[in-house]
Amino acid sequence: MRGMIGEVEEILRAHDYKMTPKREHVLCVLLENKKRHLSAEEVYNLVKQRVPDVGLATVYRTLELFSNFDIIRSTDFGDGRKRYEFGTGSNDGHRHHHLICVECGKIIEMNEDLLEDLEERVTSAYDFTISDHELKIFGKCRDCMGQKNK
Amino acid sequence: MRGMIGEVEEILRAHDYKMTPKREHVLCVLLENKKRHLSAEEVYNLVKQRVPDVGLATVYRTLELFSNFDIIRSTDFGDGRKRYEFGTGSNDGHRHHHLICVECGKIIEMNEDLLEDLEERVTSAYDFTISDHELKIFGKCRDCMGQKNK
DNA sequence: GTTCGTGCAAAGCGTTTGCACTCTG
DNA sequence: CAGAGTGCAAACGCTTTGCACGAAC
């Protein structure tokens, strides 16, 4: 994980940005919460626990910065706010989908390359050069289905 | 298309809502622009051309109303505002996906049931009961690719 | 000593809501 | 005249921005 920070530092430096302590904290919070899909405010609160004098604007600016370099990716799961997570690398980062439970809001991650043949079809049928795709599946998770049946 | 209005009127009436003239105009605008994906404000402007005394709030309320009954569906294509289009019926309305050109913003519609076997896999692998899904594919359309190559 | 990063507060923007008016039945 | 529908303007929630201060090279 130290390595990850160095890696990001490289990317930033390559674009004339610095890895400041606050940016590092934002990164750490994201790294330590890989499983969750934090909103900007949630990131802010977690960073604030370690660095009380951080500002919300800085968090937004940092998230924006990381987004621009595909270090993280933002998605709106339907609650009107952006949520951030690591892009799992800029090459294969786009094959990454979510199951969203409409009952409890849980988000289950799903890595699935089944869309590859769909991609091929689309490319030829529509003359469309795909750079990324995003699949959200809505429904009910096991737990919430269980409750329904009791 | 007259039939469509009657149909919607039925749905509304069944839930104790009325098909007022303004709601009808909103519906008409949506019907006449099926191919486009209008934002609330765009709908508002188009309705205003016919009924100058309409309010933006009414448009929002109407769109919300139609959404609730799955008459229309809203999607965010990444520009931070909701865009509305007809759900093609409440049964099969969810098999409806989009190609979004990141260059010119064009949205190409794509009806594709290739995700069905993916659905089956997900259902069994994750114990997840799917009610809907949404697939957005980002890339460059033919026109924009052409420009790039010239 | 520039330049970049930052905190704070204000502004922005799409959307929602409170309230009073209006229209319909 | 009761109740739903509506216009207007204010409020809202998330995000962005302007500005002045502060840190780093």
UniProtKB/TrEMBL annotation, chains A, B:
Zn(2+) binds at C101, C104, C141, C144. Binds 1 Mn(2+) or Fe(2+) ion per subunit. Fe cation binds at E116, H133. GO terms for biological process: negative regulation of DNA-templated transcription; regulation of secondary metabolite biosynthetic process. It comes from Desulfallas thermosapovorans DSM 6562. Belongs to the Fur family. This is Fur family ferric uptake transcriptional regulator. Keywords: DNA-binding, Iron, Metal-binding, Repressor, Transcription, Transcription regulation, Zinc. One of its GO terms (molecular function) is DNA-binding transcription factor activity. CDD domains: Fur_like (cd07153). Its cofactor is Mn(2+); Fe(2+); Zn(2+).
